[in-house]
Amino acid sequence: ILKFVFTLIQSLVTMGGRLPLAVIAGLLIYMTGSLSNHIQEDDPTHLAVNNVRNVRSALKEAIVENKKKDGKSSKKGKGNQNGRQRNNKKKNIRRKKKIDKIKNAKKSGSKNKIRKGKKEKNEKTKIMQRRRKQKKKDKKNNKDQSRQTQTCSGITEVDTTCLENARFVLVFEANQVTNYLKQSKILIRHDKQTSNKQGKKGEFEEAARHMLWAVGGNISDPKCGSNDTSLLTRAKETRDLQSTLSNYEKLLNCSAKIQEACTTPTKSYNVTIAAKIKTCNDTMEKFKDEVAKCIDLKDAKNSITQCACWNKAKVAMDEIKKLKCQTKANQVGVTNSKKACVKVFIDCKKMEDASVELIYKCMDDHSMRLINQTAESLHSGVMKDTAKLLAEAEEKN
Fold it and tell me: Are 313 and 294 in contact (CB under 8 A)?
């Protein structure tokens, strides 16, 4: 029995089998029991002890072999785990690379998409523009075709001549007539303003006369202030006297300067030009009335009446063209003259305002004998100033 068990254990170890410890323990218990029975039967003590030793050694060898196999299997498991971890790392690296490639591809793809989107938008806008141009062409063609034969009221046909007359008349009235009437009105208004400024040239002579009174009435021996002995006061009075004399001379020359600047050049506006402008204005105003009547006939049932009206307006248009009504160059000349006149007049007005302070500075005992400030003179002065202000207000309106 012992030999059989021993050979059985060795065969299991050599075959690579893994004998559980519980099975080995059971065999040992069984063997010890059988040995005790055999020892009691045969009583060979020395033989039994040797057999027990052999069993124990066989058992130890089996346990050692099992432990070695367990260690190898665990090492193999650990090796497999390490390999799996390495493979997982490699897989993760590959996945990251793929993800990065996808992201880069998306970014470049988005840029390409944006570029493609812009190109598509440009192409779409070009297509839309082409379509709009084509629609406009189609509309023009349809209008040209409809102009050939149209029925304004549905009763009688309107020929091309009637439509062309209406078109020519309306365009002429909107452009040439309107522009000429505006330019002629500007020319007449500016010439009137220039004439009004010219009529006020004598107002500055009175201011010059008052300045002469302030310096004593004798321009050859002018005086200013109280003739104080102080050096500072004398220097100030000398400066004031020089300013007063300079302003006095300019005010005296204002009348001649205004007369020259506020005279409209005859080549820009004269009696002949004024008469022609009046004739052109009257003719064009009548023409506008005729056009308005033709427009009011747009709902008439009989197109013959409409065409007759447009034909009449066309004849009036041809008559206006024969007059050769052109006033742009004349209007520019009158406007430039008005600007120069206004500039000179403003300069004289500023000197008149400055004369008030200069008269106050120079006026003293030497000027009192020339100024008679009675109640009657003050009243007349106030009335004159009021009349002047009213005239200026009317001119502005």
Answer: yes
Share of the chain above pLDDT 70, in %: 64
Other Cβ atoms less than 10 A from the Cβ of 196: the count is 16
Place of tokens 């050692």: 64
Q: How far apart are CA 156 and CA 306, in angstroms?
A: 11
Helix (H) / strand (E) element for 271: namely helix 271-296
- 209 burial type by CB count under 10 A (0-12 exposed, 13-18 middle, 19+ buried): middle
Sign of the alpha-carbon torsion through 253, 259, 262, 263 = negative
pLDDT one-digit tens code per residue, 242-254: 888 888 888 888 8
- Contact criterion met (CB below 8 Å) for 287 and 331: no
pTM (global) more than 0.70? no
Q: For the range 321-330, what are the long-range contacts, defined as Cβ-Cβ under 8 Å and sequence gap of 24 or more?
A: 323/276, 323/279, 323/280, 323/283, 325/180, 325/276, 325/277, 325/280, 325/283, 325/284, 326/180, 327/180, 327/183, 327/184, 327/187, 327/277, 327/280, 328/183, 329/268, 330/187, 330/268, 330/269, 330/273
Q: Work out the number of other CB atoms within 10 angstroms of the CB of residue 343.
A: 10
What is d(CA 12, CA 24) in angstroms, rounded to the nearest whole number?
11
Judge whether 159 and 303 are in contact, CB under 8 Å: no
pLDDT tens-digit readout, 155-164: 556 678 989 9
Specify whether the CB–CB gap between 194 and 341 falls below 8 A.
yes
